[in-house]
Design a protein that fits this description.
Length: 246
């Protein structure tokens, strides 16, 4: 059993809606925009939005979205009209549903039809995301094509510290038409990796104890092609930990 120091662990603490971008504020209510992963918690009435540092009840989304759907949502919290004193409920929710794919396990030379390059990527992960990760994609130029993205896990790609690598690959699709838009924010579900490659750990602080499982990964994106071989660049200078609670 490994014990990790997780300063951002808030799951068992009172819910705090900090760290989201406030775009309007009234005397007893606030409006914010945040990325979120949909979940289900019986102790919060069912449908919830898992933000990066908080969990909000979201009964308005019940029947509209399913567990693990990833969204960018704008919502209101009316502090003077809350149905529970144990958690916050979000209302007036509008959202954009983001593309969410599962990680692909693949061995070999990594040469396929996904050979378009991206300039850089930024990663957003949280214990609340339940094994999902948000990937912000930065391209050299903006054009009117759609793109298809794959996240590839190669079991044979291991660094000197025993950390595996995942590779973001991109493919240019048809030109956009009508109301289509080209999002630069993708999401991926990595839970399939936890059984074989995850490690168990325990968070303890002030009488709070929470067991969880995590997997450490190096993230690389295809930044070019040289003599027909993909060239990959690393995102960040250290591995990224992805978590699920036990």
């Amino acid at each position: 059993m490994i014990k990790k120091n997780l300063l951002f662990f808030l799951l068992l603490l009172p819910v705090i809606v900090g760290g989201v971008r406030c775009v309007g504020e009234g005397e007893n209510r606030s409006t914010a925009t945040s990325i979120a992963v949909i979940g289900n918690r019986a102790d919060m009435g069912g449908c919830v939005m898992n933000l990066s540092n908080a969990v909000l009840a979201a009964p308005e989304l019940a029947g509209k979205l399913k567990v693990d759907d990833c969204i960018e949502a704008t919502f209101t919290i009316n502090y003077s009209n809350q149905p529970s004193d144990k958690y916050y409920t979000a209302t007036e929710i509008s959202y954009v549903l983001l593309n969410n794919d599962s990680v692909i396990v693949k061995t070999g030379d990594m040469i396929d039809d996904h050979n378009d390059s991206v300039k850089s990527i930024a990663l957003n992960t949280s214990p609340y995301y339940n094994g999902n990760i948000f990937v912000q994609i930065n391209r050299e130029e903006v054009n009117n094509h759609l793109y298809d993205y794959d996240l590839i896990f190669n079991p044979d790609s291991i660094d000197e510290n025993g950390i595996h690598t995942v590779f973001l690959k991109s493919k240019k699709e048809d030109k956009m038409s009508g109301s289509q838009t080209n999002s630069n924010l993708e999401t991926f579900n990595l839970r399939s990796l936890f059984a074989a490659y995850g490690k168990d750990s325990l968070y303890q602080s002030g009488g709070i104890e929470q067991r969880y499982r995590y997997v450490s990964l190096n993230f690389k994106h295809q930044s070019g092609v040289k003599e027909g071989i993909p060239v990959y660049s690393r995102s960040g200078n250290k591995p990224v930990d992805i978590y699920i609670f036990n």
